[in-house]
Amino acid sequence: xxxxxxxxxxxxxxxxxxxxxxxxxxxxxxxxxxxxxxxxxxxxxxxxxxxxxxxxxxxxxxxxxxxxxxxxxxxxxxxxxxxxxxxxxxxxxxxxxxxxxxxxxxxxxxxxxxxxxxxxxxxxxxxxxxxxxxxxxxxxxxxxxxxxxxxxxxxxxxxxxxxxxxxxxxxxxxxxxxxxxxxxxx
Length: 186
What we know:
Helix content: 25-40%
Organism: Arthrobacter cavernae
Distance between the termini: 36 Å
CATH class of the largest domain: Alpha Beta
CATH superfamily of the largest domain: Nucleotide cyclase, GGDEF domain
Protein name: WGR domain-containing protein
Number of strands: 9
Order of helices and strands: EEEEHEHEEHEE
């Protein structure tokens, strides 16, 4: 069994909360991760001796989320947030490919453990590394990306971040740049 159930809910003050669950085959555990989007989550693991129980537990988790007002956010209602790092060469070097792997791994962890989305893909071209993240909350994702890139020592001075609604790749707007008045292009 693979897959993850990822759900969200806004409380009465408009704060976005998340709950997600998946089965970790390596450790034979059901993992439930939950918290306020943008903050380090809390995680509960349950050891399972019987892998056949996973489907039932996942279904029960989904039913409890629904009962509590949590729901999946369709991709069409989320946003593309792109972390863009300027490179020295047009097509990138081996060092840039290492930077790509390191940045993707760091951002995957940063976003996932805070309920802020997933790293969908990355590409190198036009002297840029673009890491595409699918996120439910643009502002919180932008802040998390800035913290992550700085914390991983990934040359924060070359970082720009743009965002657009999921279905409108022509609508990218600059959300962060170290240069005043800069624009954002992929």
